Amino acid sequence: MAELAVVSSRRSKLRQKAEAGDAGAKAAYDLASSPSEFLSTVSVVITMIAILSGAMGGAVLAKPVATLLHSWMIPVGIAEPLALGLVVLIITVASIIFGELLPKRLALAHSEAIAARLARPIQAVAIGLGPIVKLLSGATNTLAALFGVKESNETIPVSDEELRYLLEQGKRAGVFSSAEQGMVERVLRLDELRVEELMTPSVKIVWINADEESDVTWRALVASGRSHFPVYRGSRENVVGVVSVKALWANTAAGLPAKPADLATPALIIPETIPALRALEQLQKAKQRVALVSDEFGSITGILSLLDLLEAIVGDLPSHEDRQRARVVKREDGSWLVDATLPVEDFAKEIGKGADHYQLDGDYQTLG
After folding, report:
1. Does 157 reside within a domain?
2. How far is CA 189 from CA 192, 237, 270, in A?
3. Which of 98, 113, 99, 100 is nearest to 5 (CA)?
4. Same domain flag for 72 and 126
């Protein structure tokens, strides 16, 4: 019971109780943190009990049972081995029910409570059996090392896979909705997604010349449906900064003639290969809403906004432009009108063919 209760207990819950002052939970958490010595102690105790119960049971109970059978007119030569067999059977059944099945059922049902209650007695027994336990633990670690298994106390309390499993179980139990499960799973995927998968590509960016008049630029930007734009001077390799529609609108509404360069803020530039989670951290640290994305040569390949990261978590948030224009349209003559920035795999799904239908040996990802 003790070993299963400790092993099946959630260490985070034991730690929380220990920090609240529960001495039993602290002892259980310590045992769970050093499983080798703990399991050796439990194994020694269980083995000793099994040996003693078998030996004492056979010696103490077999003789009275044999006498009882003999009183029922069973010959002595049959009564003694039959008595020993009955005693062994009874002890075995009792050991399985009361020593294995019932304790383990209780341990699984109330793992943290039982672990906290039994941890300190086990620690006391471990002190008495210390030399034997250390000898067995050393032998176990040596043999385990032969199979490439090394003891480590720095275990991960919950992995991504375990968390996804818990979310699935929670959804089945009605604790989480499908939307909540999906959002948490997408949050876990943020460190797997690269920035280039979420950014708006450069071909869709509205670039602003730093020396244009703001009122002229304002009309062009409103039509784009976006909120932040890169400002360049001379060529797009010379980025001055980023300007927002809000800043341009406020300047225009106040009747102040100013060029975009005067309203631009320094641009945060991030590599296109970093994980989305790291990009979010950089945006938060820089207190920016958008970042320009560059390739390994330093060329701007796109722009990433907090909205892009939000969509990676909650799903697509359709804009007015998205509602007005589909990315794949089949025309009456049987031809396809397709957005050139659409990935080849997405296009294959749209028309009902697998990605392996197309040769993807070239250094490209989109149709354009």
Report:
1. no
2. 5, 32, 19
3. 113
4. yes
Residue 10, both tokens = 């959630």
Give the 3-state secondary structure of residue 343. strand
Confirm if 193 and 273 have CB atoms less than 8 A apart: no
- 334, 298 contact by CB (below 8 A): no
- Report yes or no: 129 and 123 within 8 Å, Cβ to Cβ: no
Residue 303 near residue 205, CB atoms below 8 Å: yes
Give the model's confidence band at 317: pLDDT under 50 very low, under 70 low, under 90 confident, else very high. Answer: low
Cα–Cα distance measured from residue 368 to residue 350, given in angstroms and rounded to the nearest whole number: 16
pLDDT at 108 over 80: no
Q: Does 61 share its domain with 117?
A: yes
Span 324-352, pLDDT tens digits: 455 677 777 778 787 776 777 777 777 76
- According to DSSP, the residues that pair with 201 across neighbouring strands are 302
The pTM for the full model equals 0.50
* Residue among 199, 364, 198 nearest 355 (CA): 364
The one-letter amino acid at 279: A
The DSSP code sequence of 242-298 is EEEHHHHHHHHHTT----HHHH-BPPPEEETTSBHHHHHHHHHHHT-SEEEEE-TTS
Q: Are 302 and 206 in contact (CB under 8 A)?
A: no
> Residue 188 is part of which domain span?
162-192
